[in-house]
Amino acid sequence: MGNCCERVGNFFCRQKNTNVRVSLPAVCFVWQIAMIVLFGVFIRYDEESDTHWIEHRKDHNITSDIENDFYFRYPSFQDVHVMIFVGFGFLMTFLKRYSFGGVGFNFLVAAFGLQWALLMQGWFHTLDHTTGKIYIGVESLINADFCCAGSLIAYGALLGKVSPVQLLVVTLFGVTLFAVEEYIILSLLHCRDAGGSMVIHAFGGYYGLAISWVLYRPNLHQSKRLNGSVYHSDVFAMIGTLFLWMFWPSFNSAITDHGDGQHRAAINTYLALASSVLTTVAISSMSKKGGKVDMVHIQNATLAGGVAMGTAAEFMITPYGSLIVGFCCGIISTFGYLFITPFLEKYLKLQDTCGVHNLHALPGMLGGFIGAIVAAAATESVYGHEGLINTFDFEGSFADRSVGTQGGFQAAGCCVAIAFGLVGGAIVGFILRFPIWGDPADDNCFDDEVYWEVPEDEETIPPVLEYNNHMIHKHQDISESNFSVEQS
Amino acid sequence: MGNCCERVGNFFCRQKNTNVRVSLPAVCFVWQIAMIVLFGVFIRYDEESDTHWIEHRKDHNITSDIENDFYFRYPSFQDVHVMIFVGFGFLMTFLKRYSFGGVGFNFLVAAFGLQWALLMQGWFHTLDHTTGKIYIGVESLINADFCCAGSLIAYGALLGKVSPVQLLVVTLFGVTLFAVEEYIILSLLHCRDAGGSMVIHAFGGYYGLAISWVLYRPNLHQSKRLNGSVYHSDVFAMIGTLFLWMFWPSFNSAITDHGDGQHRAAINTYLALASSVLTTVAISSMSKKGGKVDMVHIQNATLAGGVAMGTAAEFMITPYGSLIVGFCCGIISTFGYLFITPFLEKYLKLQDTCGVHNLHALPGMLGGFIGAIVAAAATESVYGHEGLINTFDFEGSFADRSVGTQGGFQAAGCCVAIAFGLVGGAIVGFILRFPIWGDPADDNCFDDEVYWEVPEDEETIPPVLEYNNHMIHKHQDISESNFSVEQS
Amino acid sequence: MGNCCERVGNFFCRQKNTNVRVSLPAVCFVWQIAMIVLFGVFIRYDEESDTHWIEHRKDHNITSDIENDFYFRYPSFQDVHVMIFVGFGFLMTFLKRYSFGGVGFNFLVAAFGLQWALLMQGWFHTLDHTTGKIYIGVESLINADFCCAGSLIAYGALLGKVSPVQLLVVTLFGVTLFAVEEYIILSLLHCRDAGGSMVIHAFGGYYGLAISWVLYRPNLHQSKRLNGSVYHSDVFAMIGTLFLWMFWPSFNSAITDHGDGQHRAAINTYLALASSVLTTVAISSMSKKGGKVDMVHIQNATLAGGVAMGTAAEFMITPYGSLIVGFCCGIISTFGYLFITPFLEKYLKLQDTCGVHNLHALPGMLGGFIGAIVAAAATESVYGHEGLINTFDFEGSFADRSVGTQGGFQAAGCCVAIAFGLVGGAIVGFILRFPIWGDPADDNCFDDEVYWEVPEDEETIPPVLEYNNHMIHKHQDISESNFSVEQS
Questions:
Q1: What ipTM did this prediction achieve?
Q2: Is B405 part of a structural domain of the chain?
Q3: Chains A, B: CB pairs < 8 Å
Q4: What backbone torsions phi and psi does residue A294 show, to the nearest 5 degrees?
């Protein structure tokens, strides 16, 4: 099989050059060196991760080390970290011959993006204008992971159709756009979006869809044989799904207010996710002959509840409110996989490999508007006087903002996120159409052979070779001596 | 294979209808809507997850947000959450063609059960009779996960032989029975059982065994070809085993007393588990020709130490006491797989797919009695005066209970758990025998084809090639009709 | 296939006896019983895990349970625990037919080693000479896990070439040597090495390499067919890689100072790891035709940054300093896989299955020297007066040590670790050459069939049967009816 695939590979190299031997290392090196320089100029430890913490504590009469923000946020950070690398990574291993690309490029993109994210978010949010430095702590690491999530979501739409170099470009612009829209939404519009329904999921989803739309491949059907799962690749994908599902309460509570804020966000997300699972299974089973459940739905739509709670999780949405959100989003997301994705591909010429539209773009947008409604419905009797101020951070120049106004700004924020995703994605898409990025040919997509050293595998016999002497090929895989067979 | 299996499927549909296209969605929707209504009526945030926490803290002069129960329990909660969804889920992926059902239905059952658990446990334990509300926090989420564990253990005994609809029925009754027996054991008998040797493992194990006994399939051997593992499915199962093994200290310490209680429970469980691994390997190797180790034992019996420490982990059982418990339970559990499971199947007509008897029922029962002995042996010199009161919660109406009496009640509690499991399971089993649940035929068990859309695998040759000679043979692999070979 | 392999097995038994049916259980039982006795004599709960904690708190006027060390360290402990069992375990599943041995024996070795580690480290570090007891808490558990890591690293070099009994011997001596060198380095030389670049990685790496060098197999090429990966085994290995990569910040911060110490160590490690990923991908891609990335590099070299930060992570190395460390180590480690490992095998007769030289030995040694340099460069202006004392623990008899001296001692410590690894490994290697350990024959390495009950697998066709009609035998594998075939 190996050598057969090599042949296939070389054959297409004639039309399309997928060689990234120069470009990929070049981008990685240049980028990493730039990061080192910029970190040297700008990034320092914040006071809670600096040895001066001891003095710091004295100044702020903090009683104990345990009040270091590290102990409030580190467990949630590690859960988010697992979601980014194992969750997103393994969710994208479902393709039969693109598991290396799914988990491996996800790894590369996230490690690449989080460094740039620390800088971009630092410049916009935590730059100390007196010293000109960015001071980072555990919360910065969480935000950097969040920032990467946007680009990883976009990767979901492009999975199998782009080169690693293109992915790095997607991430470079993705992180930059993210930091800008986040600044506008959280700082200028003063929206609340702790779990990032708007800034992460709506933005990332539409960003990826716009890119994919510009990169439309009319002959992608030529790779149809590889655009599907095998039994074990679906089980691998479940690893991703479950770690995303389990840790989503940490995702939505990671950067909310200490104490009741984190506590409430975790509870709300936990409930919404549970509710999504039941409605996803229900719709999936209804849609298929014999009521068979479809792994694609289980792997994705079960997570919609977590996406949709990204904004509202820290509000007093009530436990049953969370269940309702999960209930609806599980249904909508599964319908998306059944009807919207095929529709988009057929009529809008939009190829969305992982269906990020149904898992991120749509539920993220809904989450944004749900957040707006819940915010507008907030009352002092429910939140308490101090509670209302803390929850919506009605302080400083926003002290006199009403919950109604807040709701309006939340809705506006959601539109900003979508606009950034669509416009930014379109522009990046056009950049990616230059013929310099080493992207694969239409009949060579969804194939790890293009960018990875793939081991020869007993398990796969290319159907093309079946009709003629099966023995030789089959045989080669294992004993690698053809003589005995050819003799027989 | 696809269409061949379809044929097989359709063929049995004549005798046995495995179509759940109406029943599964119906149950999911009705259930989820009921949950939303009941949550609306009963469930509210507790004071530590409510925005009023700020006022609350003033009242209780709590010095810092870090004393919110969230920071005491959330890391343990996430570990428990991983055990329920990844641990139990992947442990059940070991069957060669039932991995989707193992991890997927586990996912469905747990998400379904935890909502009902929040209500049932709330009504029995935390219902505020003045307001008529149940106030939930992170500890409620942990207890809900625990409550699901009982039903998931039962699923282990039924794996591959029941329909998803039957599983939901098992869970509905399982959670209800769990809440009742838990109330009797923990509240009425005032037992201590933080890690649930009795209330979770003994109950869940015997519940599943009783159901399986009632649902005995005399012709299950017809599915023998699928009732086993393949190389990679065993590796998947190790993911489940290891996450259960690693996080069991969190499981047993998740709801114990703050401070030394959680600390001690984690240490004891860690030691018992380590000791189980060695004795499991020893017995497994002794039992096989050439001293080969059996994956079934490694995947299961290594966990017996954690199960058996469920009750005693928070007591002063001493580190070497923990090692002894793990030592014995590793041996007993492995012997169970070698001798008891075959015995049960042959003479008691009890088919236990995952051997939950050896991993949960038996070690859980032992754990209950170990807890009783350790409790009865407690002295003030070891625990200290305050320590003894805190550990056994000798307060209020139980202030004058002696440790001897406590030991007696612990033993009684264990019997209650077993009785609930056996009787409840028998009843549920009979309910599941109605021919309306869409369970698979005897020669169609352990097969994902029945309830899942299964991708066509390279491992199974694409139907297009059926015409040539090779295919016929290949085809036999599945259909097992040897005629053509004998003719050739 | 089963019976064929049996035949193969029996065949080699004539020359080489791989039967461990007596030795493996004997070692496990004797060892576990010894542990129980020794724990009974020496090990007790420390004051924070003892019920006396309540009184204890009063004495030390600690305000809250949250200040129990459990809450400072337990989340990091669980992350470390995952690295030891899932991280190391799954990283070693990459071989096509040795995944059981990789994850299973890793499990056995770690469970075996951590008990001995608690005793050895206790005797050297925490033995209370008045009571003659060792008092353990969560930090002891972390240290025990660390101690096992040394032996697991050594296993990486021996993977597939040794029997489980030999592994237990490797671990027994490995843990003992570890405790001694750790005592010399941390206590006598008063080095700082929180993440164990020196005491864990340099020691463990060279220990394994020395053993492997003594156990050189000139005819190992006879097992060449099995010394490689298949597609899905590489995906399994990525589970190990990612959990190691994600949780390495917890590894390096698990036992550092409360507060800013843990906070800073996590940040530094996070950054170094991110930087390693980019340079690893760059070098890997440069080295291959068409710029294809090699899974071996991604699975291993991406972790080099974490190894190299083991010593310096808790120092004020600065964020960009961390990036530089990761940058260099990613390059060096990948070059190691490309050139050093083949060189070692060809000219030094050193067979290093997992390339631990490139992932642990070399980066660990570098990490030790990096730590020495960073320590020597420490200034009071950067660390603050108190900070400097806390970070390097300049108290008691070391109160007047200068940072320059400290740097010198750090470098000396690194040499001690390497010396212990090389000398200890050589001795243990010679012990393992006695023909009593049941190690596999040269043409039987990397094969789970030798020590595991392996399920019959549709996926593999035994080469022995290739010469005659493949089909019929293929057929046997499943239908297990040989008569029809023998007739034909």
A1: 0.91
A2: yes
A3: 248
A4: -105, 125
